[in-house]
Amino acid sequence: MGIDLTYAPAPESRSIVDLKASYGLFIDGAFVDGHGSGFKTISPATEEVLAEVAEADAADVDAAVKAARRAYSRVWSRMPGSERAKYLYRIARIIQERGRELAVLETLDNGKPIKESRDVDIPVVAAHFFYYAGWADKLGHAGYGEDPQPLGVAGQIIPWNFPLLMLAWKIAPALACGNTVVLKPAETTPLTALLFAEICQQADLPPGVVNIVTGAGETGEALVAHPDIDKVAFTGSTAVGKAIARSIAGTDKKATLELGGKAANIVFDDAPLDQAVEGIVNGIFFNQGHVCCAGSRLLVQESIADDLLERLKRRMSTLRLGDPLDKNTDIGAINSAEQLARIRELSEIGESEGAERWSPACELPSQGFWFPPTLFTGVTQAHRIAREEVFGPVLSVLTFRTPSEAIEKANNTPYGLSAGVWTEKGSRILHVAGALKAGVVWANTFNKFDPTSPFGGFKESGYGREGGRQGLAAYLKTEQGGR
Ligand code: NAD
């Protein structure tokens, strides 16, 4: 008699979230109507409309920047660091208290599995606020002078893949250093930023210290172009990052840019293979591959390639794709129809260029945006799937024979955000990590995030660092504070 290994549905209840029919902009401590035409945000898993969201035009952005400037001059930059810290600690604690609500809302709006938003995103968000709260009264000991000063008003623009986590990476260090902010979330995932605005109210944060303007690219452009912004902090695509760099050239605005990636995950023949398989799966299928530092290029030593690929395919066959709110789901929905179209297009190009495509048997839901976990073998460095960021659950496999060939292939990309090395040999880890042109190199693990650790890119992956002591430099008047 066979054993039934199917999982019963285990959906997380969404009743903890109090979804409103419509949301305004958060300016000067209050929710206000926007002047734009408004837009809908949907669940990518079901295409159900979740809420109507206000769209900020240039006048709304101006009101938000003015509120941030007032709060900066009158309150926040004058407040002792020990007092700013209290607000940040309070926000961190409320995030923990409301963690389940935030996780469910993030999963509804983004499509990521609840076990990821619950166990990774939201705990790391809270950790980020706790960590930077700790710095607020110790800035004179951070290595940036005895009394480092804030920059002023920061305009911050974030993408949709880790909506609340990217918000935390931007807002926590900015506020700790004494800046005030105007933040624009991505147009497909505005809801947790708006819930964060409610948390700012709950924490009694002085009005204007945090302002949230929702909208799409035009709202972002208006924020970047605003003459009273001292700093632009952007996370998103390399194309938009370049446009922003061009538009602020010649101004005295500072900028940090966290852009795309095409990371190599390098597996040597002495690596613990089952552990490596887990790391490869986590590297590319975590968050449906919508991860800037995803290990999207697997470089495997030729002598173990067949064995590793067999184990990887077996493991991929056990991944469960479906309802993101189900606690057993490994792979959720693709965030938008546009992103799904891009993943499909690049995958078709991969096939037409001669790579071999494989996915496990996998039933896709009929509603919503879905793409199965996918593997391409026979990939060469010239293939577009080896060069361009797919930003989806698609892994390109290449092989190598020697460590120097692995390093050369890994660095053969315009990007340089992250990389992974799998080997039992400590000396090889140090040698390879030192030779890789990547901001983060993980050894025998992948996609690990910690607020104490700086994160950022080389080459077209951007400039500036977020996280750690280094992340403070992006928000202080120092030569190291970005460009
Ligand atoms: P995107 O560049 O299209 O959008 C990012 C944000 O910029 C959104 O809020 C968008 O509304 C806004 N925007 C769009 N056009 C703009 C303009 N002209 N001026 C100002 N703002 C504008 O990127 P995306 O598709 O939302 O996100 C995916 C990209 O983000 C990927 O390339 C990924 O690698 C990158 N990313 C990087 C990091 C990192 O830390 N390096 C982290 C997450 C995502």
Features:
483 residues, Aldehyde Dehydrogenase, Chain A, domain 1, Aldehyde Dehydrogenase, Chain A, domain 2, 7-stranded mixed β-sheet, 18 strands, 15% strand, globular, binds nicotinamide-adenine-dinucleotide
Q: Which ligands does the model contain, each kind named once?
A: nicotinamide-adenine-dinucleotide
Low-confidence stretches: none
Largest sheet: 7 strands, mixed
- Our Rg estimate from Cα atoms comes to 22 Å
Portion in helices: 25-40%
Beta-strand percent range: 15-25%
Structural class: alpha/beta
Shape: globular
Number of domains: 2
How many E strands? 18
Description:
With 483 residues, this protein is α/β, with parallel strands linked by helices. The protein has 2 domains: 22-259 and 461-477, Aldehyde Dehydrogenase, Chain A, domain 1 (3-Layer(aba) Sandwich); 264-450, Aldehyde Dehydrogenase, Chain A, domain 2, CATH 3.40.309. It has helices at 58-76, 81-97, 99-110, 114-135, 163-176, 191-202, 217-225, 238-248, 273-285, 305-316, 337-352, 384-387, 403-411, 426-435; strands at residues 22-23, 25-27, 30-32, 39-42, 49-53, 153-157, 180-184, 210-212, 231-235, 254-258, 264-267, 297-301, 356-358, 374-377, 394-400, 418-422, 440-443, 462-463. The strands form 4 sheets. Strands 13-14-15-12-11-16-17 form a 7-stranded mixed beta sheet, with helices on both faces. Strands 8-7-6-9-10-18 form a 6-stranded mixed beta sheet, with helices on both faces. Strands 1-5-4 form a 3-stranded mixed beta sheet, with no helix packed on it. It is globular and about 65 Å long. Residues 157-161, 184, 186-187, 216-217, 220-221, 224, 235-237, 240, 243-244, 258-261, 292, 389, 391, 417, 457, 461-462 line the site of nicotinamide-adenine-dinucleotide.
